[in-house]
Amino acid sequence: MEYLSWREGAEILEADGYGDKVLALRDGTMLKLFRRKRLFTSALLFPYARRFISNARTLARLGIPVPVVVDEVVIPEMQRHGVLYRPLPGVTLRQMVLRGMVSAERQHELKDQLTRFIIELHNNGIYFRSLHIGNVVLTPDGRMGLIDFADLRIYPWSLGKYLRARNMKRMQRFEHELDWLDLPAIIAGRRGAEQRG
């Protein structure tokens, strides 16, 4: 079974009671595995792995840094679909906080950058249900990018205030991350002086 050869020597980064979820492979690529959570679901027709791949391509076309997809994999004996990809270089905002890499002044700068980034996502019609600082990567060139975006939806129009506010609900559940949000600016879709003008 090809999966066992991938798993040999790999570092398991994420797993749950159903098995492995994310593996760092020996060649530097990552393998993300998806399972169907319900018997009857849209994932039967459009598996999460394909959603991940489609979203990665669209986000890259929009100029948003994302992991580079290498291949889609199917592991029938495990009833899993997966994606092989090259990870997005950088560190998540959450990792920066946990590692003590963010001073108060730096957090203020990053919060402003994150606000502009989220506004850009929303202006591009991107509704990302799993948006939180653990899924936003600061790349080595100082840009913000996204990871773990299989449940992201892309509308052909800019999001209205209702969807912008709804999209921020999950992030507001992380009490220690509320300091990262400039909700009025995000929901209005504009920053500072732009909101008054």
From TrEMBL:
So which domain of life are we looking at? Bacteria
In Swiss-Prot or TrEMBL terms, this protein is called Toluene tolerance protein
- Tell me what organism the protein belongs to: Azonexus hydrophilus
